[in-house]
Amino acid sequence: MSNPEYSEDYDDEHRLPLRPPGERKESHPDSFFASQVEHQLFNEPLMKWAVELFEAGPVTSPADALERLKKIQCMHSGLEAVTSTLLADTVEQIGEGFTDTLAELREKAPEEVRESERSAEFYRVDPSDDQTINSNFVAEAAIALRETPEMVGKRMFNAKGLRYVCKDTLLALAAGEITAKSAHYIVKYSQDLTEEQIKIMEHVLLPLARTASDATVYQRARRLHDRMNPESAEQRQKKSEAARKVSFWFDEDSGMGTIKLFHRADVIKSIQSTIRWGVGQNNDPDDERTSDQMTADLYADALINGWPGSSGTPLKPRLSITIPALEMLADPSRALADLEGVGPIPAGLALQLAKDAPSFQRVLTDPWTGAVIDVERKNYRPSQGLKDLLRHRDVHCCFPGCRRSADRSETDHIDDWGHGGATDRENMHLLCKQHQMFKHALGWKIHARPDGTRSWLTPNGLHVIVTPESVDVVENLDHMNDHCPQRPDTSSRLEVLMNEDTRRVLGYPVEPEPSIDPD
Length: 519
What we know:
Strand content: 5-15%
Oligomer: single chain
Shape: globular
Largest sheet: 3 strands, antiparallel
Structural class: mainly alpha
């Protein structure tokens, strides 16, 4: 049986029977009366539940607590309905008003518009294209919702499906009758169906969704979709095969990670059988690893070093590890290192990885904030040294919400070189290709602050502060006033004596011990 928590997510709004942008009248009520009715429909239940919870006073019994939890669940559903409506309506209205907005900008800042148009031509992007408008707004909404653009992109698919396709599902969600997950499953399995088939799906599933669990709705929606889907099983298989991919992510606390391969079932079965056969060849009686551990190790060894008997891959990844030397000296048991592209890992694991490293590069960090402030340039040209500094200081793309690693990003001038911007650490940061295009062609503005943070202004006026990833302590950063961060009182902090070990770590010359006259 399929598990909704592990199912592949290939949702695409083009697979929904959506009318073209500009023809979606739901986002433009045709009268003030209609607007007010819709506002009441989506917002009045939320106000009612909030008032009831507030006026109920302290909890009196378990039964009372359970009733309140039901109201809270209704509020979650109502909030999701309002959020979906706002997302779908706003991006539709931006698209329809694009021409008027551009004309207004041409009048106020003609040179800025001309420069953006030149950048758009360079990046081969059309700012008026529906998908470009959608991506640009998703990035803004991600800031407002404190979520990643990927998560908001999935929300946008759901929002358009509810607003324009599964309208009865949206009304049930706003009334708190069904959960947000059940609503998502109904939209998800409306893909590739006709409007008439979707009405049948809602008619069958909504009564069930009012009482059943999300998992039950998922299974019923999937089966109903498969029965009504006009595509043949062979066509669906070919479409799924085209979506094969490898995904990976990292655990936040343990220094571990996961790789997931999505491929044809026969390929997965062959890989599984091959690895199991390889594990079965291990007859070492002193090997204390479990079967799962040996399976994982064999899989990793085969990918990195090649299958036993082969020469392995000629490509070896570069690992960059920042080890806080002063913290190690002050309290080795609590020290955490940082693996580039992954995040914090135990210092012991970092030392284990570093012991086989062919070379080292000294990285100087601020002892109060943890920010990278300089990189050893002994063996590098200044331009390469600046790149190394940005890689260790910023860690990933500096666009709000983006986590593309330094290896997938490029150096970018905050104040453009053509306008007098310097090539130095204050005026440089990392941006991936996509977000360089956002900055130069789609109206995003950035300002470097003296405290080391970056202030972004979105096309629709939302402000957000981005702090370099290497900064650990932000309590003394000042985002409002134009001055550098104030140093804290160090009386309560750990102290590291300036002894021989400390001087060696910092790269200072070690002072010779004074000679003692025997007389």
